[in-house]
Write a structure and sequence with these properties.
Helices cover about 45% and strands about 15% of the residues. It is of the alpha/beta class. It folds into 3 domains: about 5-20 and about 180-320, 3-Layer(aba) Sandwich (Rossmann fold), CATH 3.40.50.1000; about 30-165, no CATH class; about 325-405, Methane Monooxygenase Hydroxylase, Chain G, domain 1, CATH 1.20.58. A hairpin with a 2-residue loop joins strand 18 and strand 19. Helix 12 (about 300-310) packs across helix 15 (about 415-425). The longest helix is centred in the last third of the chain and has 41 residues, at about 325-365. The protein is globular and about 90 Å long.
């Protein structure tokens, strides 16, 4: 697949490339992993929070939630908004909201993600979280004794964190890596290509050392041709970085002894091929001796990996969007249907223009006005509307059955797409899409067509 460019970026000027690990260097079998998280956390909600054991009977539906949605914690709703923060689709639990009810609640509102009322679901790791919340809201509404909606959302997040920290999640995955993790030899090929072109490679992950070591050894080491291990490949590796705080809060680095896992305070300049914990991007950049625009960072989290970093150190940024591959394929397959919709809309707009002219006659030259002409035009418009509705039904079948497109909310860009456009210099479905380009590529965006510009004139 291709790399999709939002801002000009000359790779010749990039001297260091930073990488997140999970869903960037290491790809997951998302549906299998999220299903396991869903089932595990429901069991833990029973054990830790005393939820009724019946919640464990819930079935996981991978399509129930997509990346980029928003939880309204107070109302038990899940929302998709456009780039302006206006709600375009809303569900209460798993059930679609009536448009009148949706408009009554959100019609005059702009969704502000700075409010604690809202929780964004911006990564692949959010799918199970959103699905649990939606299904538990349904059970509460059906009379099951459960906490209020807001507490539900906080309990789910807390218990997911517990599952990570008590090793019940990662411990099981580590014993069954082939069921959850994709081994892609192309990743090692890409990294060694960057090294050959003189790029410094930096690993910056929120995962702890033991998990990082296990996944990198499993996915990178077997495919290296010019390095013995992944730690030889990376100039500096940073675990438990606590992004986004890594980008805006000055913390101390700890050096990890890779043979024992023991840690000591890191004094002085960060050293080649060493592994660290914590720290701060400011010191990393200083020790690399580089300007912000000479560093490119690739990650999968729009907030933790891209947005905060762009606002603080002005590193160049790239976003990995795992669902993008399926969305692009759906767009490709739906293109003929979209063409039919566009053609019908052209005819509809012509008829609406004729209708407007007749309305002008009614008020400005009533002698020439013929009421029957209006009736005929309305009849033609009704026929076209019927055709458009049929085409739209066909079009929707190509995308997520509950939410439609990830990057659009109706005709407009979704909030998620807006953030990708604003903060990612470029984006792609997987990191190995960069193999189609040399490490000296000059990435340039296409000229964007503004509303006042006629594409036929450009």
């Amino acid at each position: 697949m291709s790399v999709y460019v939002n801002r000009t970026l000359n790779m010749k000027k990039i001297k260091a490339i930073g990488f997140d690990m999970d869903y960037t260097l290491v790809r997951y079998k998302t549906e299998a992993f999220e299903k396991f998280v869903f089932e595990l956390v429901l069991k833990k909600l029973v054990d830790v929070k005393n939820y009724p054991k019946e919640v464990t009977e819930l079935k996981f539906d991978f399509n129930q939630v997509i990346q980029g949605l928003i939880i309204d914690r107070l109302r038990g709703n899940i929302l998709q908004t456009n780039r302006y923060g206006k709600v375009k689709i809303a569900k209460h639990g798993t059930k679609p909201m009536d448009f009148h009810d949706q408009n009554e609640i959100y019609g005059n509102s702009i969704i502000d993600l700075n409010s604690d009322q809202y929780q964004s679901l911006d990564t692949n790791f959010s799918i199970s979280n959103g699905a649990m919340f939606a299904n538990l809201v349904d059970l509460k509404d059906q009379g099951m004794k459960l906490p209020d909606y807001e507490t539900l959302s906080h309990d789910i997040k807390e218990v997911i964190d517990i599952a990570h920290s008590d090793n019940s999640l990662k411990g099981y995955v580590e014993e069954h890596l082939e069921d959850f993790i994709i081994k892609d030899p192309e990743v090692a090929k890409l990294l060694e290509r960057f090294k050959r072109f003189g790029k410094k490679l930096i690993l910056i992950t929120n995962s702890e050392w033991t998990w990082t070591k296990r996944l990198m050894e499993y996915t990178i080491n077997p495919f290296l041709k010019e390095h013995e291990t992944w730690t030889d490949l990376f100039d500096i590796s940073i675990c438990l970085a606590c992004k986004p705080r890594f980008f805006n809060v000055s913390n101390m680095f700890l050096e990890i002894q890779t043979d024992t896992g023991l840690m000591t305070n890191a004094e002085g300049t960060l050293e080649q091929n060493k592994v660290y914990q914590g720290g701060w991007a400011g010191k990393l950049q200083k020790d690399l001796g580089l300007e912000g625009e000479e560093i490119l960072y690739l990650g999968d989290h729009i907030y933790g990996d891209v947005l905060t970093l762009k606002k603080t150190f002005n590193w160049r940024t790239a976003l990995i969007l795992d669902p993008l591959e399926a969305e692009i394929e759906a767009i490709r397959q739906s293109t003929p249907t979209q063409a039919l919709i566009d053609a019908e809309m052209v005819q509809k707009e012509k008829l609406e223009h004729e209708l407007n002219k007749l309305e002008l006659l009614k008020h400005e030259d009533p002698e020439k006005y013929n009421k029957e002409d209006i009736g005929k035009i309305f009849g033609e418009i009704d026929k076209i509307n019927s055709k458009i509705s049929q085409h739209l039904e066909t079009y929707r079948r190509f995308f997520n059955p509950h939410w439609g497109e990830m990057m659009r909310a109706g005709l407009e860009e979704s909030r998620f797409a807006d953030q990708v456009e604003k903060y990612a210099c470029f984006y792609m479905a997987k990191i190995t899409d960069l193999l189609e380009y040399t490490p000296r590529t000059y990435f340039r965006p296409k000229k964007r067509i503004l509303a006042h510009e006629d594409s036929t004139m450009l």
